[in-house]
Design a protein that fits this description.
8-stranded mixed beta sheet; OB fold (Dihydrolipoamide Acetyltransferase, E2P); Rossmann fold; 3 domains; 442 residues; globular; alpha/beta; 6-stranded mixed beta sheet
């Protein structure tokens, strides 16, 4: 039997907003139920309409702000109300940072049952045009008679009807309408599913996910678009390993880590940090916390293409770098050669599986450890990390909940001290929290 959809209350409701959720919605209580309200901020009185009714909570959207938060600002982007790419443009930047710091501390206390001895000053940078990597949806909407290019609507599978983006690097953010018009000219405009954006220090690449083979005329249209704007154009007919360069004949992307005199090359579908300025500061902070010494042997887990490994190699005796993606390890080796670095030993290992007894662990001792895991965290390798008894562990995280969980294990089960922790504003105007923590063995 199908479950009957609950009817939404018709009349607007008044609410007092108490706090923010992890995704940037206001939290209020109506009767005995919690309501998550899009567009509402703590300390506000609002009128809202219900958008969804569930058994244990409801959802809504602001209709009118009756009493505004002192931290409310006017969103800079005209598409903020509909686009799901940002959730906090209506909150002043300094307060966004405070909220993220509170979220990190609350997660450490509640999930990990730990407290840090010191809160690090937040790492901040440009708040507009900062995003160098993105995946843009593409869809032809018959009713609008146009191709939409951009992010999804808030809490929806539909694409937002947007013509520009304030957080994307302006090279792309100011050309969404150009992309829309160009794709509409293709014979297969209904079969372009998405565009992967990757921007380096001296160039930008677009990967068009084409669900059907492009004919010569289509390829010429995309080539001319790339020529006009100086973009590298790639096609991806199937999986990630089918990405092929269309224009120009040869192309490359790279970014500098100036403080360590390094240039790292990458391919447009490689994982790289989205915010160049914060990445520069993050690498410097991570190494400062790790306190590398010339005699140190350092283990880095989830090393990617060498973002931390190569700066570390400039300062220590040896780095052993481990990553599950063989393509990224290949890129890391290429970057070692490019920068004349020969004291990094690379290993391809799935760190979500049992790693005991592998060559990089047998008969090895490590003075210090750095890890930068995915959102799921590093719970699978914590026992191995603890068994190495390294004096310092620096943990870079893109998810405060899994950082908190893992911090609890390192501190409460394995005797490490959480000495410092803080946030890095990798994604301004979003609820995404990037953080870093230092653990020391007493």
């Amino acid at each position: 039997m199908s479950r009957r959809k609950k009817k939404l209350p018709v009349e607007p409701q008044r609410a007092t907003v108490e706090s923010l959720t992890h995704d940037g919605r206001g939290v209020a209580r109506i009767g005995d139920k919690t309501v998550f309200i899009d567009g509402a901020l703590p300390q506000e009185e609002v009128m809202f309409r219900y958008t969804r009714v569930r058994s244990n909570y409801d959802e809504g959207a602001v209709l009118e702000v009756l009493q505004a938060s002192p931290h409310r600002v006017t969103p800079a982007c005209e598409f903020f109300a509909v686009c799901g790419g940002c959730s906090l443009q209506h909150l002043e930047p300094a307060e966004q940072i405070r909220v993220k710091q509170s979220m990190l501390q609350e997660n450490l206390n509640r999930i990990g049952k730990v407290q840090t001895e010191e809160i690090l000053p937040p790492l901040t940078g440009p708040i507009w045009g900062y995003r160098q990597k993105a995946r843009l949806g593409v869809r032809y909407v018959h009713k609008k008679e146009r191709v939409l290019v951009g992010f999804r609507e808030k809490h929806s599978a539909f694409l937002a009807d947007m013509h520009s983006c304030k957080i994307l690097n302006p090279l792309i953010g100011e050309r969404l309408e150009d992309l829309s018009v160009t794709i509409r000219q293709l014979s297969c405009y209904k079969q372009i599913a998405q565009i992967e954006v990757a921007i380096g220090d001296e160039g930008a690449a677009l990967i068009f996910r084409n669900l059907v083979e492009l004919n010569d005329a289509d390829k010429q249209i995309l080539t001319e678009f790339g020529q006009r704007h100086g973009f590298q154009i790639y096609l991806q007919p199937k999986g990630p390993d089918t990405v092929v360069l269309l224009w120009p004949e040869t192309a490359s992307l790279s970014y500098r880590i100036q403080a360590f005199d390094l240039t790292l090359a990458f391919r447009p579908n490689d994982f790289t940090q989205v915010n160049t300025a914060i990445n520069q500061a993050m690498v410097t902070q991570a190494l400062d916390l790790l306190d590398p010494q010339p005699t140190d042997q350092v283990l880095e887990l989830f090393c990617g293409l060498g973002n931390f490994s190569l700066p570390l190699a400039r300062q220590v005796k040896q780095v052993v770098a481990v990553e599950g993606d063989a393509a990224l390890i290949e890129r890391a080796r290429e970057n070692s050669d490019r920068n004349a670095i020969n004291n990094v030993e690379y290993h391809v290992t799935n760190l979500m599986e049992d790693v005991a007894g592998l060559p990089w662990l047998r008969k090895r001792s490590y003075d210090k450890i750095l890890l930068d895991p995915p959102r799921s965290g590093a719970i699978e390798v914590l026992a191995v990390i603890a068994s190495l008894k390294a004096s310092h562990i620096v943990y870079v995280s893109c998810n405060p909940a899994t950082l908190a969980r893992d911090a609890g294990v390192l501190v409460n089960d394995y005797g490490y001290k959480l000495v410092k922790a803080g946030v890095m504003d990798m994604f301004p105007h979003t609820a995404h929290v990037e953080s870093i923590a230092l653990f020391i063995k007493p």
